[in-house]
Amino acid sequence: MLSFSTLTDIPADFGASVVTVGNFDGVHRGHAALLHEVVQRATARGIRSCAVTFEPHPLQVLHPDRAPELIASTTSRYERLAATGLDAVLVLEFTAELAAMTPEEFVRDVFVDGLHAAEVVVGRDTRFGVKNSGDVDTLRQLGQQFGFAVDVLPDVGEDHRISSTDVRRALADGAVDVAARALGHVHDVRGVVVRGLQRGRELGFPTANLGPKPEGLVPADGVYVGWLVREDTARDDAEHRMPAAISVGTNPTFDDVPERTVEAYVLDRDDLDLYDETVRIEFVRRLRGNTKFDSIDALITQMRRDVAQAREICRTR
Ligand SMILES: Cc1cc2nc3c(=O)[nH]c(=O)nc-3n(C[C@H](O)[C@H](O)[C@H](O)COP(=O)(O)O)c2cc1C
Ligand SMILES: Nc1ncnc2c1ncn2[C@@H]1O[C@H](COP(=O)(O)OP(=O)(O)OP(=O)(O)O)[C@@H](O)[C@H]1O
């Protein structure tokens, strides 16, 4: 997938394209359906497919107090966009100047002059241009004016429209299985493995601890079942993706963990050295909250139960 960060990056011979626009945070099932349509229509016409997106998230610039915590990092969004088969992504820096463009200016500069759009595909609630003043009707008028087709796709979602907002809410509640259903993939966070307090090994469960502020939305404190994925190993390596019991929180049984951490015990492995590696932790299912135990023995007994449950769940996947 080609990646452009300004309009001037687009090569002169890029040709005509089928285009869509949005934040695509998390690249959920609604986004994926829309992007799939963009790719299919471009293939049918024998032209390029391109998604226009923004960095940072528009609300971070316009209303930082209302800006959402993003589901996925820029890296992960990029990878998921690439996986849809798009030919190109245009990641525009979202600035006050961009925010001030009228719908007509945005469409002319970006879709028409920049990407030579033959067709623009959007969801029915799309808004664009200064103060979100443009909607699908505006887009249809501009399509007639500039000579591109406009397709408005129906909502995706069984009982209600899938949205990034719902995915964020599910993750904040620890409902990682609900989030995965809306996303169409398991949610993950990404970070470098750092040294913890080295207590895990004594408890019988050594854990890979992610450094502070991993990329991606960290779900509610609790104990989860999932997978640890090592980015630096090949996909077909047996140790690339390994089942894990995961803990998110401040380890309340101990009083010495000031920061919320994400740590994963790779099931039945005490021989791994993951320090300084970049890993992803995938969250499949929540088992329970993160509790303060009266004794270390009580914690260990519960961790054994967690691990047994994790083994069972991962065995069937
Ligand atoms: C499956 C699992 C469940 C856990 N549950 C709890 C818990 O309920 N309460 C708690 O205080 N710590 C819990 N922990 C975190 C342990 O306290 C932590 O892994 C241990 O203190 C090692 O920390 P370290 O890696 O910083 O050395 C859990 C860890 C795992 C892997
Ligand atoms: N469930 C859905 N079904 C169909 N299209 C969707 C769905 N969700 C988003 N889209 C479309 O995907 C494009 C990109 O959307 P964008 O990421 O900007 O917002 P969003 O997902 O609607 O945001 P949020 O969920 O945070 O309200 C838009 O054209 C939007 O209409």
TrEMBL record:
A Pfam family reported for this protein in Swiss-Prot or TrEMBL: FAD_syn
Catalytic activity: riboflavin + ATP = FMN + ADP + H(+); FMN + ATP + H(+) = FAD + diphosphate
Biological process (GO), any one: FAD biosynthetic process
Start and end residues of each Riboflavin kinase domain: 182-315
Broad EC category: transferase
Pathway(s): Cofactor biosynthesis; FMN biosynthesis; FMN from riboflavin (ATP route): step 1/1; Cofactor biosynthesis; FAD biosynthesis; FAD from FMN: step 1/1
GO MF, any single term: riboflavin kinase activity
EC number per UniProt: 2.7.1.26, 2.7.7.2
Function in brief: Catalyzes the phosphorylation of riboflavin to FMN followed by the adenylation of FMN to FAD.
Protein's recorded name: Riboflavin biosynthesis protein
